Amino acid sequence: MSRRQITGFSNPTVKALRALRDKKHRKASGTFLAEGLRLLTDARESGHLPEVLVMAEERDPHALLSVLEADVLAAGGEVIETSADILSKITGKDNPQAVCGVFAEFDTSLAALDRSAAKIWLVAQALRDPGNLGTMLRTGDAVGAGGLILIDDCADPFSAEAVRASMGAIFTQKVAQARWEDFLPWLRSGAGQLVAASLRDAVPYRGAPYAAPCFIMVGNESRGLPEEYELACDLWVTMPMKGRADSLNAAVAAAVLAYEVLDSLGG
Amino acid sequence: MSRRQITGFSNPTVKALRALRDKKHRKASGTFLAEGLRLLTDARESGHLPEVLVMAEERDPHALLSVLEADVLAAGGEVIETSADILSKITGKDNPQAVCGVFAEFDTSLAALDRSAAKIWLVAQALRDPGNLGTMLRTGDAVGAGGLILIDDCADPFSAEAVRASMGAIFTQKVAQARWEDFLPWLRSGAGQLVAASLRDAVPYRGAPYAAPCFIMVGNESRGLPEEYELACDLWVTMPMKGRADSLNAAVAAAVLAYEVLDSLGG
Predict the structure, then answer these.
(1) Which residues does chain B have within 8 Å of residue A162's beta carbon, measured at their own beta carbons?
(2) Chain A residues within 8 Å of chain B (Cβ atoms)
(3) Minimal Cβ distance to B131: which of A131, A242, A259
């Protein structure tokens, strides 16, 4: 395919790219959109090249962008140049980044995970907010987690908001999606400690007996974890709650626990 | 005033309530909107009653709502009953909570803060995301912080999204807004250790020499803290970054540090 310019708003490629903001179209095409040179560079350095690279005509020259462009062309991908207005239409943002890319979605089956690859794994159940999801990926990257396992009906990890909030970690962390009834047998088929913040027979989260691989699980933003899921955990930990609230934001809870586990198990 | 019913979408009260979604109208009226029985109950139990309580006609009866209604009327406030559709129009949500309230904005001057009231204070500089802001308030409540100090141009703490993300902590945490050139002299006029996550001559965040009152500062989501602000800190701490990223989400960084400081200084 190589290179071409697009000047019309009604061009079918523009429509197809724009449609990637909808989950339905992402699933149908098996692709998703990531924006910004920094994210795309993180992707490239993590071994992910976009199938299609879209650049603004009026962009500033940038060495990293030239490298990216050359790599995409060398890999048989397509490079599209277009106006800032059309980029804005594609990404749905008023001030779009000067570049975005279309990536193939990854295999998100549990079978694709190698649990021995990391001491920490994050698990989210029915997490509805794509910002929280992306933030958990970002935190996972920071603590050296293996990835994020999404249980039941979570936000789409390939949505623009999740990808953006992940700050590139969508490309460095593994992501798996599974129903609880599939996750639990998978977990129990090997080593793995399932940990949740809970009020149930819980021990203080500081100095708790964490063991690798440690799977830190947080629940839905409003409802928390279902009781059955909590009961299936190996370790319940509590965090101090000094005020009126009895819970933390899900991504915050995951991060405070993950940093504690990192300290306990070593990096 | 007391009680009345509103049935028309074009009623001026509905328009005025709806306008509270805009910052301009919040500032002009000195009021803001909070939604949901749980949030309003937290508010009441923290000594904040709404000036106006708006309830759906088709609501389920609830003892806490009856108490709230009686308290608002006793305090000379107004109670409005209206349709779910009109509530939806006011809050801008498809599935609105059955109740919302209009509150007077609080005094957000530094002078209103008593720094000796808590060992931990959170400080955010140019924080743009209202969800992050609300999450910091929620974390502050959890760690027993005194409040959140917003430096320079931050998101509006009284926006619907910030109030919602705070999960009621907007009513339990103090909030101050100040320019840096006013904050720093205020800070230096009394006891207070200013701490930031930084790569600059930093010590590990675990076991760092925190001192109360400890002011934990995080910077803008994209740019971090300006160098000048960082240089004014008393303590620089680093958190492990095991992956590609060199930073955490601002609200996450604040929370991980705040829990560490809480452990160090005691609750």
Answers:
(1) none
(2) 42, 45-46, 131, 135, 138-144, 165, 167-169, 172-173, 206, 239-245, 247-249, 251-252, 255-256, 259, 262-263, 267
(3) A131
Closest by CA to B85, choosing from B127, B54, B46, is B54
Q: Are A13 and A133 within one domain?
A: no
pTM of the model: 0.94
> In what helix (H) or strand (E) does residue A146 lie, and over which residues does it extend?
none
Tens digit of each residue's pLDDT (9 = 90 or more) over B163-207: 999 999 999 999 999 999 999 999 999 999 999 998 777 999 999
Same domain assignment for residues A141 and A114: yes
DSSP single-letter state for residue A91: H
A118 and A88 share a domain?
A: no
How far is the C-alpha of A110 from the C-alpha of A101, rounded, in Å? 26
Q: What ipTM was reported for this prediction?
A: 0.94
Chain A residues with CB under 8 Å of B119 CB are none
Domain that holds residue A180: 110-265
Tokens of A98: 């000067």
* CATH code of the domain in which B251 resides: 3.40.1280.10
- The dihedral of CA A83, A89, A91, A94: what is its sign? positive
A152-198 pLDDT, tens per residue?
999 999 999 999 999 999 999 999 999 999 999 999 999 999 999 98
